[in-house]
Design a protein that fits this description.
Number of domains: 1
Number of helices: 6
Mean pLDDT: 85
Order of helices and strands: HEHHHHEH
Largest sheet: 2 strands, parallel
Helix content: over 70%
Strand content: 5-15%
Number of strands: 2
Protein name: OmpH family outer membrane protein
Organism: Algoriphagus confluentis
Low-confidence stretches: none
Pfam families: OmpH
Shape: elongated
Family: Belongs to the Skp family.
Structural class: mainly alpha
InterPro entries: Chaperone_Skp, Skp_dom_sf
């Protein structure tokens, strides 16, 4: 009577254990794949060009503010209190517009990050499709991304790295 639950557990383990062993796991390094893709360099160059233009505009605004402060300091003794307060208000308004510009361009939901997402989206779709095809070809149940962060994978055996297969699927030569 005591052996009956053990036999049932053994049968269940054998039944479900074979299914668990059939699952295959692997990982890729999406950062490695992105850096190898020729379109990524084009996207990075375009983003750098846009970013430099926006940074120059922000620097020009900052330079104008510095010049306004310098001019105010030079003329401070000649100005009435009302004139001084008006100039300070103008400087504060210019500082506020500079901060708004920086926030609008480089903020969390700024133009820079929207442009980055827009430019990277087609490339990410291509890579995702290649990852899906590699996963299906190799019967992978789970495919991790090594570049996703330190908590995603603690240890990885290189023989389970499918990054090269994804590059091959994308038609990108290693060298």
């Amino acid at each position: 009577m005591n052996n009956s639950p053990k036999i049932v557990l053994l049968l269940l383990f054998m039944l479900f254990g074979s299914q668990l062993r059939a699952q295959k796991f692997g990982y890729i390094d999406s950062e490695f794949i992105l850096n190898k893709h020729p379109d990524y360099k084009v996207v990075q160059d375009e983003l750098a060009k846009l970013s430099n233009e926006w940074k120059k505009e922000a620097q020009s605004l900052d330079q104008e503010i510095k010049e306004m402060y310098t001019q105010l300091k030079a003329e401070e003794v000649l100005l009435t209190e009302e004139m001084y307060q008006q100039r300070m208000a103008d400087i504060k308004a210019k500082e506020k517009s500079s901060q708004e510009y920086n926030s609008r361009i480089f903020g969390i939901n700024g133009v820079y990050y929207q442009k980055q997402a827009e430019l990277l989206q087609p490339l990410q779709s291509k890579i995702y499709d290649a990852i899906e095809r590699v996963s299906r070809k190799n019967n992978l149940a789970v495919l991790f991304d090594k570049a996703a962060g330190p908590s995603a994978i603690i240890y990885s055996d290189p023989r389970h790295d499918y990054s090269e297969f994804v590059l091959e699927e994308l038609g990108i030569d290693e060298n």
